[in-house]
Design brief:
The complex is a heterodimer of chains A (252) and B (268).
Chain A lengths: L3 E12 L4 E13 L4 E5 L6 H9 L6 E6 L2 E2 L7 E4 L11 H5 L1 H5 L4 H14 L15 H14 L4 E5 L7 H18 L2 E6 L2 H7 L2 E6 L2 E7 L8 H4 L3 H16 L1
Chain B lengths: L1 H16 L1 H6 L2 H13 L11 H14 L1 H33 L1 H16 L6 H8 L3 H26 L2 H9 L4 H39 L4 H11 L2 H34 L5
The chains are: A alpha/beta (252), B mainly alpha (268).
């Protein structure tokens, strides 16, 4: 568990069709403390996913620094776990082997890595699905596997890219509640990307609003944990924060 | 009507229990028609033998040991050719699929060489290597290689980038990404390439045996033509069909069922 620091992060790329340079991200600075859960919210096209891809090391950044625990990152690495919107489970591996993949890459022997995988599957209530293939699971279960697979590798920072955007509304609420529960147990550093304002406030300690490639606002969320939708829906503070963030996003 | 339905129901139950029956039944009318035409002597018997004549010839050649020997020669040649086709084709396909410089450099060459298919090489090969195993192996490897390479490239390029990213963010290095993501992801395409390659290779082998062979099923058929034995030509043709059916349903199809279909990459 380490902190994540973005310092004057920038991304420019050359558009060969327009023949111009495009500033996708300019001057984003952001600090996620060790063990803190931060939501990054903004309208589509504001550069959320680009930022995440740069932190994950999938895309090079054009300027500024990305630091994990004070050290600059270079390329993709197991210190930054990623949960993808499209789940990105390996279709040819069972659920157990998917979750055991990170430990396998770290050189951990079969019995030990399967023990780790089973432990994490149990946390997410997926023990019964260990020997099934991803295509045999529902979308909600697949993303549970996706979250658990990233956590089982014990990353310093967990990056989540709209992970619940493609599951149905009821499942999404369940997954959000489960995530807050699991996070309370494991306390990792999380950067959670979403365009869903309610989700951003529900999950996070802090909500950062992004607009046109720069940080618009940074809002602290001081709601008690563990969080439940049926409680928070009635909570005036939750409603106040949601409205506040929504106004920011809409003005963005 | 209900009797017919009952009969049909009985057939479905029996053929589900014994899949071999479902394979054999479509051949019943074909063989029946063949018997009828032969029996009516629409063509002279020497040009159009009956199934029984072919069966007798099969027993005779098996008894003399010629057929088992020739069959073995053909199958071993195909296996050797396939082995090298795979051993060269898959690594080459992965290289070309993953590296855009390799792709740029080699893709046009591949398409060019693919066009000079199998037996078009035979004239020059016979001059270089003579009538023998080298020539035949070259032709089969050549024929198997291209479908395997081209389909492997296609498969490698169709593996979603997000899966490679997922593997990298879980700590996989370049070789692990190839072993754990690229190869299994490309496997359905590789199997397609193998299926095509084996099919083409089998045909190229028969053609090569006819032209340069001294043994094998292709040679058996061509030799029978010289001797005017239509029965043996028929026998050779039937053996080709049966062998391919065995390769497909006993080797290729089970692999596909155990991999791509199980993983949900191929819809059933």
């Amino acid at each position: 568990m380490k902190s994540l620091t973005l310092r004057n992060l920038a991304k420019t790329y050359f558009d060969p069709y327009a023949g111009t340079r495009v500033d996708a991200i300019h001057d984003v600075s952001l600090e996620v403390a060790a063990g803190e859960f931060v939501s990054l919210v903004g309208p589509s096209g504001c550069g959320k996913t680009t930022i995440l891809n740069m932190i994950a090391g999938f895309l090079p950044h054009s300027g500024g620094d990305i630091l994990v625990g004070g050290k600059p990152v270079k390329g993709p690495g197991p210190d930054r776990g990623v949960v993808f919107q499209s789940f990105a489970l390996f279709p040819w591996k069972t659920v157990l082997d998917n979750v055991a993949f990170g430990p396998k890459m770290r050189g951990i022997g079969r019995s030990e890595r399967e023990r780790i995988a089973r432990e994490y599957l149990a946390i997410a209530g997926l023990s019964h699905a260990a020997d099934r293939y991803p295509s045999e699971l529902s979308g909600g279960m697949q993303q549970r596997v996706g979250v658990v697979r990233a956590l089982a590798n014990d990353p310093d920072v967990l990056l989540m890219d709209e992970p619940f955007a493609s599951v149905d509304a009821q499942t999404r609420m369940t997954l959000q509640e489960e995530l807050t529960r699991i996070w309370s147990e494991k306390r990792s550093t999380v950067l959670f990307i979403t365009h869903d304002v309610g989700e951003a406030v529900f999950l996070a300690d802090r909500v950062v609003v992004l607009s046109k490639g720069h940080v618009l606002d940074d809002i602290k969320v001081d709601l008690p944990r563990p969080r439940k939708w049926d409680v928070l829906n009635q909570d005036p503070e939750f409603q106040r924060l949601s409205t506040l963030v929504l106004d920011k996003v809409r003005s963005a | 009507m209900t009797q017919l339905l009952k009969l049909w129901g009985g057939y479905v139950r029996v053929s589900t229990r014994f899949p071999a029956i479902a394979t054999l039944v479509p051949f019943v009318p074909v063989v029946g028609l063949w018997m009828l035409v032969a029996h009516l002597q629409l063509f002279p018997k020497a040009f159009f033998p009956s199934p029984l004549d072919v069966w007798r010839s099969f027993l005779d050649l098996t008894w003399k040991g010629i057929l088992p020997d020739y069959l073995q020669d053909s199958v071993v040649r195909l296996l050797v050719g396939t082995f090298w086709g795979i051993a060269l084709g898959i690594p080459l396909g992965v290289l070309i699929g993953m590296n855009r410089y390799a792709y740029r450099a080699l893709w046009p060459l591949l398409l060019f060489l693919q066009a000079i298919g199998d037996i078009a090489w035979l004239p020059i090969l016979v001059i270089w290597f003579g009538y023998g195993l080298v020539t035949m192996t070259f032709v089969i490897v050549y024929t198997v290689l291209f479908p395997v390479v081209l389909n492997t490239v296609l498969g490698v390029r169709s593996v979603p980038v997000v899966l490679q990213r997922a593997a990298q963010s879980l700590g996989a290095g370049r070789w692990s990404v190839i072993r754990e993501v690229i190869l299994p992801g490309a496997l359905p395409n590789i199997m397609t390439g193998l299926r095509n390659g084996l099919g083409y290779g089998w045909r190229a082998l028969i053609a090569a045996e006819i032209i340069v062979g001294t043994s094998g099923i292709g040679f058996l058929m061509f030799d029978a033509r010289r001797a005017g034995s239509v029965v043996e030509i028929f026998l050779g043709m039937i053996i080709l069909g049966i062998l391919w059916y065995i390769v497909d349903s006993w080797i290729l199809a089970p692999i596909e069922r155990a991999t791509g279909q199980r993983w949900g990459l191929i819809t059933k």
